[in-house]
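Input structure tokens:
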């Protein structure tokens, strides 16, 4: 939008409102990013609900587990790392492009891993093996930048922990 910034907002799964100018969305948000963000919010909301529902009552083995907590931590640190990478890419720092791609896959895979872990799905062991590979690949990529970028270091550490816990 040209000629004056109009403020828009986005309601997240946790109920928080993120305010941003239209100019920001026009330069940093395209349809693909919007769909990825909406999907991530949906996964985060369902995982948050499943974890809250299963945390106190553990009738069938579902609920909070080390794998669920680790997968959610990967998603959280991954989102921060990816946002950091996008900011640096927007400033012309092309070295973080591979990191952004790797973290993008990690967030999607670990989001689904968290859902399966919360549900104690019979598919969990097979999916966890794939998630472990994604975590290791993301850790390797993030470690390339960990000395200069704290979000990459945090993401690499979360990936290493999740890969260790995944069966």
């Amino acid at each position: 939008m040209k000629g004056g910034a109009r403020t828009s907002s986005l309601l997240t799964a946790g109920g928080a409102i993120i305010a941003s100018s239209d100019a920001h969305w026009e330069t940093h948000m395209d349809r693909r990013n919007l769909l990825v963000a909406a999907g991530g919010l949906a996964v985060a909301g369902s995982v948050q609900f499943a974890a809250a529902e299963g945390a106190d009552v553990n009738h069938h083995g579902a609920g909070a587990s080390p794998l669920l907590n680790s997968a959610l931590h990967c998603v959280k640190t991954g989102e921060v790392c990816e946002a950091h990478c996008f900011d640096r890419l927007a400033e012309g720092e092309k070295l973080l492009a591979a990191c952004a791609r790797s973290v993008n896959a990690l967030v999607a895979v670990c989001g689904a891993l968290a859902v399966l872990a919360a549900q104690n799905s019979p598919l969990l062991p097979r999916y966890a093996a794939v998630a472990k590979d994604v975590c290791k690949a993301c850790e390797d990529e993030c470690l390339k930048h960990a000395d200069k970028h704290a979000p990459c270091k945090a993401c690499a550490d979360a990936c290493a922990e999740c890969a260790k816990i995944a069966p």
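The chain has six helices and two strands. The chain has one domain: 30-165.
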